[in-house]
Amino acid sequence: MSLSLAIGCPKHTEVLEYRDPQQLDLSEGYAMGGCNHMCHIEGEPPLPCGHFCPLKCHGNDHSADSGFRCQQPCSRSCPKGHPCQYACNECERLSPEGSDCLPCKVEIEHVYPCGHKSTMLCGDSQAAPPCPFPCGKVMECGHICQLQCGHEGTCISTYECPVEVRVTCTACNKVHVGPCHTERTHGPEGTCPHPCVARLPCGHMCTGVCGTCHKDGHQECVVEVQYKHPDCGHTQTMPCGESQADPECTAVCGKDKGCGHTCTKPCGHRGPCAPPGHECFEAVEVKCSRCGGDFSSTCTNVS
């Protein structure tokens, strides 16, 4: 009596009978759990992705849960008509419904709504990226706007034009160089860096900066003058501008306190230099009435 082993494939109808164990070779084809035929059978519908299984017969089904992944190239195209460059299973994992592919990797020349062009991946162009180029429009000042293309507002009101321009100040009639935006905003008189040439009411020349004086008025005269206080007659050296405000005298009073010594309070102090019966602590040399010797004392003690 001879023994044999019959092996049949659940998918294909062929049954193989083996009598000798050496006839059974699982090294090729059968290792996937099926027979040695191709998985796809003539007339069988394609997989959900539209492809036919290219593998040898295998034991598991074609569901994602079984670990099956279609490795054939995706058969779809991007919105611009480029064939998808990914494997079918990559796009299927991205979109189980099979409606989307991964971003297209074909390089294209993208034209922005403004007319600028740049080379980018087709998939990146689908998101309508903002134009990365400078605006490039010629502004009213005649210079080129360097803001990013598509900026808000008008160029001249948004962009602080840094181009150096030469302008003539109408106040001092001198030429200076400054940023175009600053000169437009403040005018050449408001930005002039040259010394002011105006003569102040006091008769001295202004020592301020032309542009600053034009915007904020002339600065106080700093020329030093000898000012005589009308009330006390003291003379002091001070800036001319300060002398216009009738300043208080800071000199020492110097009037006699009634004891022969002078008042050391600031000039213009209120009240008498010293009240009646005041104590004066000025040092004096006196002669002793009894022995005739000289000694030092204070003015108050002597009086």
From TrEMBL:
GO terms for molecular function: zinc ion binding. Keywords: Metal-binding, Repeat, Zinc, Zinc-finger. The keyword Zinc-finger applies. It comes from the Eukaryota. Pfam families: zf-CHCC_shd. One of its GO terms (cellular component) is nucleus. Residues 49-72, 114-133, 141-163, 259-282 form the NF-X1-type domain. This is NF-X1-type domain-containing protein.
